[in-house]
Amino acid sequence: MAVYKVKVVTGDVLEAGTRNFVYITLVGTRGESPRTTMSYKFRTGTVKEQTVKCQQDLGPILLVRLHKSRLFLDDAWFCNEVQVTAPDGTTYRFPCYQWLEGDTTQEFCEGKGSILAEDDPEVLKEQRRRELRARQDTYQWKHYADGWPRCLNVDSIFELDSNTKFSCTRAKSFTGLLIYEGAVNLLSGFLTRPESWRSLEEMRTIFSREQGRDIGACLTSPAP
């Protein structure tokens, strides 16, 4: 009997956790583990530990398969990474960093930066081929109109999965940055200048001077 220790790290992004069923399968050079139930509840930003028991040693671990099955309603799950510690103490790390939605099975190879030509076992080469085909199916371009750049071949953003969409977290950060930069430019007079700029250097000089005046006014103004 070979016992493997598994750690599954759930991301800390918004609503990364799930209450759906999650299973794991370890794939090694000498065989595969039975599909093992991990849990039906993963909290955002937490680490779930589990043991996977096999009848024999699997050899070096090549892949991990994560299976997600919806309980009643789909509850997407964002997995950061999976760590597997073999009976001999060797630790394998499998970066994921993606959403698993619906009833799905995803495979992840070890994060050691190899290329397809260096993948000796056929199981790794086949995993690479499946991943490439999936990306080709997702990222197809279409011609929208003359003079316009190409866009994804979908009719609505709702056809895209969460790994392709612009995330809520990034959207909030981007919006916050735009508000901050707009406020800075407005207070410095950059957005309300009625005249045109004669040169980029003039724009930089006036912008720096106006910023200095605003800072000086803040420092010298009496407290309310």
UniProtKB/TrEMBL annotation:
Give the matching Gene3D superfamilies. Lipoxygenase-1, Domain 5 (1.20.245.10), PLAT/LH2 domain (2.60.60.20)
UniProt cross-references to InterPro entries, sorted A to Z = LipOase, LipOase_C, LipOase_C_sf, LipOase_mml, PLAT/LH2_dom, PLAT/LH2_dom_sf, PLAT_LOX_verte
- One GO CC annotation, please? cytoplasm
Indicate which residues the UniProt annotation says bind Ca(2+): G17, D75, A76
Q: What's the protein name? A: LOXE3 isomerase
Q: Which SUPFAM superfamilies match?
A: Lipase/lipooxygenase domain (PLAT/LH2 domain), Lipoxigenase
Q: Which SMART domains match?
A: LH2 (SM00308)
Signal sequence range: none
Write out the GO biological process terms.
lipid oxidation
**Keyword tags:** Calcium, Cytoplasm, Dioxygenase, Isomerase, Lipid metabolism, Metal-binding, Oxidoreductase
Annotated site location: Essential for stabilizing binding to COTL1 = W99
Which family, according to UniProt? Belongs to the lipoxygenase family.
Q: Which residues form a coiled coil?
A: none
Location of the protein in the cell: Cytoplasm
Q: In which pathway does it act?
A: Lipid metabolism
Alphabetized GO MF terms: iron ion binding; isomerase activity; oxidoreductase activity, acting on single donors with incorporation of molecular oxygen, incorporation of two atoms of oxygen
Q: Which residues form the Lipoxygenase domain?
A: 114-224
Chief place of localization: cytoplasm
Q: Where is the PLAT domain?
A: 2-114
A Pfam match: PLAT
